[in-house]
Amino acid sequence: MTRLWTGVALVGAALALAGCGGSPEPAAKAASKARCSGAKLASWQRLAARVDALVYCPTWMPDPLDGAIGSRWNNIDSVDPDRSYLESWVWQETGAGAAGGELHVNLRGYPGRTAVPKCRDADTDARVPCFADTHGQKRFGAITATLYTSNRDADQWHVAYGWRARGSFYTLSEHVAPPLTYAKVVKYLNRMMASLQSVQPGA
């Protein structure tokens, strides 16, 4: 089942953290000035060429995730025949005596499609939106993103931002799991969104 964030406290946090207005946090301002470069930028340029579309390189991610395609934390590097892609980074800590925890971030793109994609519901077999339960919008430079709190497939149990650019739909999501609270995940998403650097095919 897809987790539905229905609690009043969670909705309030989403609106407070993702709503319009207000000045960017200092960390978000710093992230927006960073740049992708070197091997990391080259990895996203290869993806842009592979899907023949604009992609977004994250210049900041929660430590130790690095946002580089092909790095040790990049557990999924997938492009479908329709050019939609999923890039995923995961850090996990388990074991006796360890506090444990997980950091999991996904970046997706759906070149040539602006509609929210559909996923199969495991209970009814119906086709339903992969990203649902919207909680306001927030602007990050040229991007106006919608916050989604009920998501599916690889983004299940995640909070996600979705936005449209150049005739395509894009998402950035993070798993709500220890050591992070829901509010902390939204803050991390805000900082990552502010850090995104567009990369054009053929650049």
Q: Judging from the principal axes of the Cα atoms, what is the shape? A: globular
Number of strands: 11
Radius of gyration: 16 Å
- The domain count comes to 1
**Largest sheet composition:** 7 strands, antiparallel
Q: What is the averaged pLDDT score?
A: 86
Beta-strand proportion: 35-45%
Helix content: 10-25%
Strand order of the largest sheet: 2-3-4-10-9-8-7
Helical run tally: 4
> Structural class given helices, strands, pairing?
alpha+beta
Query: H/E order of the elements?
Result: HHHEEEEEEEEEEHE
Describe the fold and architecture.
This protein has 203 residues and is of the alpha+beta class. It has helices at 8-18, 26-33, 38-51, 182-195; strands at residues 55-58, 74-79, 85-93, 101-110, 118-120, 127-129, 131-140, 143-151, 158-165, 168-175, 196-199. The chain has one domain. The chain has a 7-stranded antiparallel sheet. A hairpin with a 2-residue loop joins strand 7 (131-140) and strand 8. Helix 1 (8-18) packs parallel to helix 4. Mean pLDDT is 86; it is low at 1-24.
